[in-house]
Amino acid sequence: MNDDQLLRYSRHILLDDIGVEGQQRIVAGRALVIGAGGLGSPVLLYLGSAGVGTITVVDHDTVDRTNLQRQIAHSDARVGEPKVLSAAAAVAALNPEVRVVGLQQRADEALLDRLVPEADVVLDCSDNFATRQAVNAACVRHRRPLVSGAAIGLDGQISVWDSRGPETPCYACVFPPGAEMPEVRCAVMGVFAPLVGIIGTMQAAEALKLLAGIGQSLAGRLQMLDGRDLRWTEIALPRDPGCSVCAAHRHAG
Questions:
Q1: Taking a C-beta distance cutoff of 8 angstroms, is the pair 68, 76 a contact?
Q2: Which domain CATH number covers 66?
Q3: What is the chain's mean pLDDT, rounded?
Q4: Active-site residues: which are they?
Q5: pTM of the model
Q6: What's the mean pLDDT in 161-165?
Q7: How far apart are CA 43 and CA 127, in angstroms?
Q8: pLDDT (tens digit, 9 = 90+) per residue, 68-107?
Q9: DSSP assignment of 123-175, as one string?
Q10: Rounded Cα gap, residues 133 and 220, in angstroms
Q11: pLDDT at 27 over 70
Q12: Using DSSP, how many helices (H) and how many strands (E) does the chain show?
């Protein structure tokens, strides 16, 4: 790292768990972020400020005034702009040395099969079940760790899905693709603004830990937050040996 980086990231470097080597891994890291909305905003800002070398963000939407209550990467001046460009501008204002690649399109299977192998960690900040399943399947195929968050109303959840481990589940082990999942969206149900910040910031923390190679991830554990009482619940998640998504890939691996 150069002198500017040693100064910029000095508070990370001072941490025994990270140090120079861990920060170098972060600076060399490549993150793929699906969604630049409520969860994606804190994810992108913290990954950018921490110095993740390349951040690719995928989102098909544009900034709307109703987003501004919670999507802190965007501003009133950028209403109508593509969210990926608005988010890239927000990251650049914090840390101009980070490379942000913005793709204004939906995260379909073909795109994910191109982008996931290029990433060291994938963060699912989307808001629908179909996208979560597609991202998980791509991460399983290409053996990449997935940090997934969700928030609606005053309830949030976060986990890491990492099928590289022999006993840790993928997303589909717990939420099978054929399951009936009601689609709940912020536009209909509403969402408490700080909730997406809490969950998104934790997603960024898990991703940075994975990149730096420190601590223990949330793989095999699901944390759920009741924002009414600010009460956390954690449950252990078993792997499904008959999972339609990851079982065959584990055997092949």
A1: yes
A2: 3.40.50.720
A3: 94
A4: 186
A5: 0.95
A6: 91
A7: 15
A8: 999 999 999 999 999 999 999 999 999 999 999 999 999 9
A9: EE--SSHHHHHHHHHHHHHTT--EEEEEEEBTEEEEEEE-TTSSSPPPHHHHS
A10: 17
A11: yes
A12: 11, 8
Tell me which residue of 188, 227, 203 sits closest to 47, measured CA to CA. 203
- Using DSSP, state whether 213 is helix, strand or coil: coil
pLDDT in the model for residue 182: 61
Q: Supply the angle between the helices 193-212 and 19-27 in degrees, to the nearest 10.
A: 110
Calpha distance 107→111 (Å, rounded): 6
CA gap 46, 82 in Å, rounded: 20
Statement: residue 189 has pLDDT above 90:
no
Q: Which pair of structure tokens corresponds to residue 200?
A: 């998104």
Q: Which amino acid is at 176?
A: P
What's the CA gap between 252 and 18, in Å, rounded? 34
pLDDT score for 180: 63
Structural domain range at position 34: 3-252
pLDDT band at 151 (very low <50, low <70, confident <90, very high): very high
In 3D space, the residue among 212, 214, 217 whose CA is nearest the CA of residue 25 turns out to be: 212
If we measure between CA atoms, which residue out of 41, 43, 44, 84 comes closest to residue 62?
84
Task: Count up the domains in the chain and report the number.
Answer: 1
Structure tokens at 171: 């997303």
Q: Residue type at 6?
A: L
Report which residue type is found at 26: I
